[in-house]
Amino acid sequence: MSRFTTPEVATRQRATEGGSYLMTSMPALRASEIVRAAARAYLARKQAEGKSRREAIRCLKRQLARVVFNTLKTSTALT
Length: 79
Description:
The chain is mostly helical. The chain has one domain (16-74). It has three helices and no strands. It has helices at 7-10, 21-48, 53-74. α2 (21-48) packs across α3 (53-74). The radius of gyration is 22 Å and the shape is flat.
């Protein structure tokens, strides 16, 4: 017996049952590439200022925490 019992569901066309992993993960992968590139640039800038790698990473973590906090604070979805 088929899983698709109603005509509405039977007419729906999909490439694969589970969807395309590549297509669904692409926006997240692209966003992580952008974040990685920005983080590398930030670390390079901090190291050029004379900070050690550990200090630069500490500054990056602080910056990321600031961005996440401000995003959560201004988000209308949470209120």
